[in-house]
## 1
Amino acid sequence: QQQVKQSPQSLIVQKGGISIINCAYENTAFDYFPWYQQFPGKGPALLIAIRPDVSEKKEGRFTISFNKSAKQFSLHIMDSQPGDSATYFCAASIGETSGSRLTFGEGTQLTVNP
Amino acid sequence: DTAVSQTPKYLVTQMGNDKSIKCEQNLGHDTMYWYKQDSKKFLKIMFSYNNKELIINETVPNRFSPKSPDKAHLNLHINSLELGDSAVYFCASSQALHSNQPQHFGDGTRLSIL
């Protein structure tokens, strides 16, 4: 049972373009939605996160858009750069009682061409 | 300074052997985790510990036994290794057992079973 579904599986964008990765979740008890970035040979690193009481969060070139009624959230990378080429994971978790269990999406391999 | 460090980085061994992976965090965090990333890069939680107490045991075979000697360390021992255990294992830590606490990942241990 995959509780967080992520698309697309892979994405190729030209330098300067906008990269958009989408996620959908099933469990309405999720209350924290982070995005992680993973480079080859490295562990995932937190990029940006949002709580469901906010519809958008922006940090530099990275923006999360959150649609609670549709149970969807997305990552937008503006002015994409070759250095952004990595695997991106959306995730979701439920409060303290679940022990901060992160449920990850399947990942999106982003390639930004120069 | 490496925040979450795992040893070894690579582990190649025969089926049926027993092996251990060590994890240490120097962030002063209370909560530590083990995740498994399969060949398709799917990340799934295995265990979490809070202040040396087991919080999550995510239906992992009992051949896997985590041990937390203190808050800064969470080791993973695997008995009778099987071919399906081949994966990258990530250790992570977070400040506390709350859903809005970022998780910091190590760079992983790539386990290959021959």
## 2
Amino acid sequence: DAKTTQPTSMDCAEGRAANLPCNHSTISGNEYVYWYRQIHSQGPQYIIHGLKNNETNEMASLIITEDRKSSTLILPHATLRDTAVYYCIVESYKYIFGTGTRLKVLA
Amino acid sequence: EAGVAQSPRYKIIEKRQSVAFWCNPISGHATLYWYQQILGQGPKLLIQFQNNGVVDDSQLPKDRFSAERLKGVDSTLKIQPAKLEDSAVYLCASSLDGTGATDTQYFGPGTRLTVL
């Protein structure tokens, strides 16, 4: 079973920040949090990952709580092309995907 | 840098027929993964190779599924005979080295299999 819990779906207005939450209350100290997204008919695309500290790259920011039991993926200025299923994964030598959050960016 | 390549992109077969999928990982990546993604679900790991050795095949239905990675580069996944419930997208992924504490996987576009 997946070690993460995510909302089934979310909507976001184009140009606004999209904040996607993920709960991983059973995470162990050496397990990383990974985020991927899957646009329709494509393979999952790597977005970002982190262990303890907040991370930022050209695609997104990852905020991990101090107790590491939850995290939030932030897309700072969502566009229509960000419409996808977003997966939060707690990785320990292998990925176990849940059903993810279906994000719809609205014009 | 070229990504993970998979072929074919689509395949339609009758039940009880056999089918094979091919994957070429990112150059230099030692670890290769095959996933099955049923409609509406997240991908499920079928098998993981480290170079040409199997690391994890606990979720592979070995009575009908087989996979190989003979020279530690390309890989093929075969289903024989196919069942209706095998209809899914088969994804290949690769990573630089699957033995460390963390290793980012990069996915190919997948092969969509329909079994009639």
